[in-house]
Amino acid sequence: MEKLMIVGGNRLQGSLRASGSKNAALPILAACLLHAGTSVIREVPRLQDIATMCDVLVYLGARVEREGTVIRVDASSIQYTEVSEDLMRRMRASNLVLGALLGRFHRARISSPGGCNIGSRPMNLHLKGLRALGAVIEEKFGFISASAGRLQGVDIHLDMPSVGATENIMMAAVLADGTTVIRNAAKEPEVVDLQNFLNRMGARVKGAGTDVIRVEGVKKLYSVEHVVIPDRIEAGTYLVAAAVTGGDVTVTNIIPEHLEPLTAKLREAGVEVRANDDSLRVLARGRPRAVDIKTMPYPGFPTDMQPQMMALAAMAEGTSVITETVFENRYKHVSELRRMGADIRVEGQTAIVKGVARLSGAPVEATDLRAGAALVLAALAAENGTVLEGLEHIDRGYERFEQKLCGLGAKVMRVHS
């Protein structure tokens, strides 16, 4: 078992380069299944979730080669359209192969997906959209089986703007007959990046980034190269790390517009944020001010940055009110922050955070990916040392996390026990 040992109190300074987006790379890797050829994906981060998706592709019969941040996927010899239960349980995003397999092979079988236990994330919107395209879907014994003749373009209205459902429907629709219209679609930048990748392959998709996406079905797709967008959540985590330590940190290789919901809150907290074309610099002086946050689908404040901002609120001057509207079980980090001296009271989906002058190091455990990041940020600002367990969650979404932090002057060490 691996742990992080963190000694707080150091002011982070310097610059680092954001990795490619995990949440953009995963659906793009799944979309490689749509074409019987080789796709080259660049700027893919080295993460456990990416490794799991590659394992899924190999299990299905694809040939996957990795060199640095470049992954080549040859999907010309796919042998299976069923994903093993073990692979599906490792990561929820494995469900993204459903739309791609159904689009190309007109059949697919997956088990109910796993991933972080942060709340109910049912597949009902995915399945509703695929059924509307003409798929026959059976749910039995924990498995989802889908089959179809030719999928047929149709008008689909999502009950809520689900990112995964939007992406699965897009991938299934690119090879369907006719035009598919997805209304109340997710607007996240990662959905836009998937559209760009599909269009490079020869698909006809437009509207990503708005709430209406139109997919005109085509007969054939082609081999392409694609560069994944930067990871806005990873970049945001380092920006908050600078804020909680009173630091001066520049994050490069980013798209500042993708981080505007976060940078607006940092400025509200009294943190100076300077934006350039492809970088953001955070300069923090003294204790941050309390801020109120309500998570919403993009372009609202991202749920994936809520735990990190709660770490900031825990040491801010004043009382912050944080409301989580996306996942009902995303306050598991609260009890761990309390162990470090945070004053947090949860009432339903709202957390009232009274900032304290100083947090204290303590033994804590990451229960999910972003909760783990929040605990690391709290430890960087705390007195004395912190030992963090559950490191496997952090490794799912942060590439070389401790090395990047140490490069900014943090005292973080990975140890084996």
Automatic annotation (TrEMBL):
CDD domains: UdpNAET. It comes from Desulfotomaculum copahuensis. This is UDP-N-acetylglucosamine 1-carboxyvinyltransferase. It is found in: Cytoplasm. The gene is murA. GO terms for cellular component: cytoplasm. Belongs to the EPSP synthase family. MurA subfamily. Coiled coil: none annotated. The lineage of its organism: Bacteria, Bacillati, Bacillota, Clostridia, Eubacteriales. UDP-N-acetyl-alpha-D-glucosamine binds at R92, D304, V326. The active site is at C116. The keyword Iron-sulfur does not apply. It catalyses: phosphoenolpyruvate + UDP-N-acetyl-alpha-D-glucosamine = UDP-N-acetyl-3-O-(1-carboxyvinyl)-alpha-D-glucosamine + phosphate. The keyword Membrane does not apply. HAMAP family: MurA. GO terms for biological process: cell division; cell wall organization; peptidoglycan biosynthetic process; regulation of cell shape; UDP-N-acetylgalactosamine biosynthetic process. Cell wall formation. Adds enolpyruvyl to UDP-N-acetylglucosamine.
